[in-house]
Design a protein that fits this description.
The chain is of the alpha/beta class and 860 residues long. It has six domains: 15-144, Glycogen Phosphorylase B (Rossmann fold); 160-338, Glycogen Phosphorylase B (Rossmann fold, 3-Layer(aba) Sandwich), CATH 3.40.50.2000; 354-556, Spore Coat Polysaccharide Biosynthesis Protein SpsA, Chain A (Alpha-Beta Complex), CATH 3.90.550.10; 557-612 and 833-860; 615-666 and 777-829, 3-Layer(aba) Sandwich (Aspartate Aminotransferase, domain 2); 669-771, NAD(P)-binding Rossmann-like Domain (Rossmann fold), CATH 3.40.50.720.
Length: 860
């Protein structure tokens, strides 16, 4: 953060634009910034550039300000070009990327937070602190421009007409003088933030029994949920939702003893008029959005995954389970404490007793790692047990397990499958929650705490965590980590057939009591089968928790990798018999299966002819970090990616004088800037962008896009007169008629398909460019290294280990940079990703065949 500059050091500011793109609450939290600009820049003309949703609150809170509304037809480049602001401030959580790009193009200085697709677009880009209050984050924009803005609370002075209107409404409705307000809604796009209406009804009944009137407030789009609360409550309520203007509802809130509300605009409006607040938080950050009024209470169910709704992050959960677990008693206690009727106590959540069940067979060399990690759990030691079930081991497994105090050991060899061993453990376990993991795993210290916390919710039957690959020197294990083999947690929420894996899953005991145990004769897929039976039963649901982390030691040899995929394929057949996923006729499935085998056979012949190593890796010599540091002579150049910039080896290389070049690679948004700049080196003529989708909308906002000779955008579904930004959108035939000589494919998901589709155009002299293939990476590396390599007297190396970047991509970067060294703890890279993909697919398909004929003895 820049220190505030003296007036003599700052250039004169005549025009300031504050961009506020969101709704009621965000605008209120921007008020201190607006006031600070007026106080610190009294002679500057201030313009508020607003989303239509902000119009009413802006007219109430800032009637004297100049406002421009961002209607659908608003032309940002034209407006900023005409306005030419000296300073443009994008309030948190930042605006849309086309706006930021346009502002930066025509403003002297643009200040924004570096979030999502806006990264790198503003003149001054601020890092996001997820714990920093939104008011402070907004004031940071002005501080970054050199002005000492002080923290203040948002305040709104209401016009007398609003108070008169509120008095009339309350009198007509018969609301007693002593009343509280409930706001059970929030904007419809963020309905996941809503506390259950039945809970609001319970609070209404209790407060009405205390002698208080209960008024329901909200906008027209919240009338339905307010009606639901009114119907569920047994006590009389006064429902004003959708029946008041914004100034009138603000005056109603000012008269209320307090408001109970979700994290919403009306909660912040109540705080701005001085009303005590009970704020109910779930998926959003209570630290960032705390209502700024004294007194207030924050009620939330602390869970490890909160907050899950953050700017720049895709919001996955469709339901905020943590809000369901926030009880009416908690909210009622907070409200009564503000009313001075009882002390407030936030009771800690219930911690269920958990039984950790671990099956093992000849696990003596690996189970010690797991048991040591379970000793380091942050969950209270008296609230869990560890039970190891030995499935007939012939090594020193029993001796190692018994060396860990407090771990229960059981021997079971009647049926030798992991599911039979788990079932035996179920009969011995004492926990109300059953946690499963495997002997080739290692648990994160917060694993049990994160996995167990959700079982306070009665509908939760299973919780699955993240399964990451443990560190390994094996390139085969690193391939599995990079492909995220077994890490399916993101697909669990709301899935009809959740892909749960017993290496990292928690079940409620009642699920087994009601539905029976694992199918003990299954050799793979019994975890999926159990979860799918639970979902089909309908009484419980499964959910994922990304904070419940287990590290899996993946297979490290080709033989073990092949065998485990054969096992997966076999287990899939067992599951398919009970839960058929593919409903196609057998004849069609046979045709597709034979076609798949023919493709695999052809690919196998390619590997036999060309080899199984990455073809681009030839000439790239692997060196260990210590050897690279030892061979540095003069100024070496080391190329890596942002995720590895803080790596100990990179820091040591920099300390010893190496020039470290940090190169963003896909999917980082910054990668696009470099890819576009490197494309300019190719001097494309009459260039058209192919595809007018979201990727292109993002592409046109990047600073380097405007430097290319773009003539238009090609889209097969173009309509007459269509434009994207300032470019015409036309079909391919029209682009060719206009003399198209170059095409840039703008899609990340389908680039390979489009490269093949458009390849015949090269015979007509039309050059085809991608953004993500190996050629682009080589070109990008050549572009960024060009100047720096000339100053390099030492070796040029890449540090792109293959658990992060594929060997082919690393080799493409090395080729462009002229590097001959690949720093890695591994030796020579022997297997390409394509080969390992092929081998695992062959194993899986072979397992399907073996499972179909019940040929299993090779796999047990």
């Amino acid at each position: 953060m820049n220190e505030a500059k003296s007036a003599s050091e700052r250039p004169a500011i005549h025009k300031v634009v504050i961009v506020r793109l969101y709704g009621l609450g965000n605008f209120i939290l921007a008020l201190p910034l607006i006031e600070a600009v007026e106080r610190l820049l009294p002679r500057a003309e201030l313009t508020l550039l607003l989303d239509p949703r902000c119009r009413r609150i802006a007219e109430l809170a800032r009637p004297q300000s100049r406002m421009v509304i961002l209607e659908k037809e608003f032309d940002a480049p034209a407006w900023f070009a005409a306005e030419k602001p000296d300073l443009t401030l994008f309030t948190y959580p930042t605006g849309q990327s086309p706006l930021v790009a346009a502002a930066t193009r025509f403003s002297r200085v643009t200040v924004s937070h570096d979030v999502g697709r806006n990264r790198g677009l503003a003149t001054v880009a601020l890092a996001v602190d997820p714990q920093r209050h939104e008011v402070e984050a907004n004031l940071d924009l002005l501080r970054a421009a050199g002005y000492a803005a002080e923290m203040t609370y948002p305040k709104i002075a209401l016009p007398r007409a609003a108070t008169v209107a509120a008095n009339g409404l309350l009198r007509a409705a018969g609301v007693p003088k002593n009343f509280i307000a409930l706001h059970p809604g929030c904007h419809g796009d963020l309905a996941v933030k809503r506390w259950p209406p039945a809970y609001y009804a319970a609070v209404a009944d209790a407060l009405a029994a205390d002698g208080l009137g209960v008024v329901l407030v909200g906008g027209p789009d919240e009338a339905e949920v307010a009606d639901e609360v009114a119907r569920a409550a047994t006590a009389p309520t006064f429902n004003l939702a959708g029946k008041t203007s914004l100034p009138a509802v603000a005056a109603v809130l000012k008269k209320a003893r307090l408001i109970v509300a979700n994290d919403s605009g009306l909660m912040h409006l109540a705080a701005a008029v001085g009303t005590p607040v009970v704020g109910i938080y779930g998926p959003t950050s209570w630290e960032k959005n705390t209502p700024l009024v004294d007194p207030h209470r924050i009620v939330r169910r602390p869970v490890s995954c909160s907050p899950c709704y953050l700017p720049g992050k895709v919001f996955a959960p469709r339901r905020a389970w943590c809000l369901d677990m926030t009880t009416p008693d908690q909210v009622l206690g907070a409200a009564r404490s503000l009313l001075g009727r009882e002390p407030w106590e936030n009771k800690p959540p219930h911690q269920p007793f958990v039984s950790v069940i671990v099956p093992t067979y000849n696990g003596g060399k690996k189970i010690g790692r797991l048991l040591a990690s379970l000793e380091k759990q942050t969950y209270p030691r008296d609230r869990f047990e560890v039970l190891v079930v030995d499935n007939g081991s012939r090594d020193d497994t029993a001796q190692i397990v018994r060396s860990f105090p407090g771990v229960r050991y059981a021997y079971f060899d009647r049926i030798q499958t992991s599911y039979a061993a788990r079932n035996h453990g179920l009969g011995l376990a004492r926990g109300e929650v059953l946690a499963f993991t495997d002997d080739d795993c290692q648990a994160d210290p917060d694993w049990l705490r994160a996995g167990a916390e959700w079982f306070e919710h009665p509908e939760i039957g299973a919780v699955a965590g993240r399964l990451f690959g443990a560190e390994s020197d094996s390139e085969i294990a690193r391939w599995q980590s990079r492909r995220q083999i077994l890490n399916w947690q993101a697909a669990i929420e709301n899935a009809p057939n959740p892909p749960i894996i017993t290496a990292n899953v928690f079940f409620r005991r009642a699920v087994f009591d009601q539905l029976g145990n694992f199918k003990e004769k299954m050799i793979s897929g019994g975890d999926h089968d159990m979860a799918w039976r639970m979902i089909a039963d309908g009484r419980w649901q499964a959910r994922g928790n990304e904070r419940a982390v287990v590290y899996h030691y993946h297979r490290e040899t080709l033989q073990s990798l092949f065998r485990v995929f054969v096992r997966y394929g076999y287990g899939h057949v067992d599951i398919d018999r009970t839960f058929p996923v593919n409903q196609d006729p057998p004849a069609k499935r046979l045709r597709e299966g034979l076609a798949g085998w023919r493709a695999l056979a052809a690919k196998g012949l390619e590997f036999a002819r060309d080899g199984i190593a990455p073809p681009d890796a030839k000439g790239l010599r692997p060196v260990r970090p210590a050897d690279f540091l030892a061979m540095q002579t003069g100024r070496a150049l080391l190329i890596t990616i942002p995720a590895l910039e803080a790596h100990a080896f990179v820091q040591e290389a920099r300390r010893r004088g190496a020039d470290v070049l940090v190169l963003p690679l896909p999917p980082a948004i910054e990668y696009l800037d470099g890819a576009l700049l490197s494309l300019a080196d190719e001097q494309p003529r009459e260039l058209y962008v192919y595809a007018a989708g979201q990727h292109t909308r993002r592409l046109v906002t990047r600073p380097s896009f405007s430097g290319l000779p773009i003539r238009g955008i090609i889209d097969d579904r173009a309509t007459p007169g269509q434009q994207l930004d300032r470019y015409p959108v036309i079909p391919l035939s029209e682009a060719r008629r206009r003399g198209c000589r170059s095409i840039l494919i703008s899609t990340d998901a389908f680039e390979a398909e489009l490269l093949k589709k458009l390849a015949p155009l090269e015979k007509e002299g039309i050059r085809i460019f991608g953004l993500y293939d190996a050629k682009v990476l080589t070109r990008l590396a050549r572009h960024v290294v060009r100047e720096r390599a000339a100053k390099t007297a030492g070796p040029i190396a890449v540090f792109l280990p293959n658990d992060v970047v594929s060997p082919a991509h690393a080799a493409a970067v090395a080729a462009g940079a002229g590097a001959r060294l690949a720093v890695s703890d591994l030796g020579e890279i022997r297997y390409s990703d394509d080969f390992l993909d092929w081998l695992s697919t062959v194993g899986w398909r072979l397992g399907r065949i073996l499972g179909s004929v019940r040929f299993r003895h090779l796999l047990v």
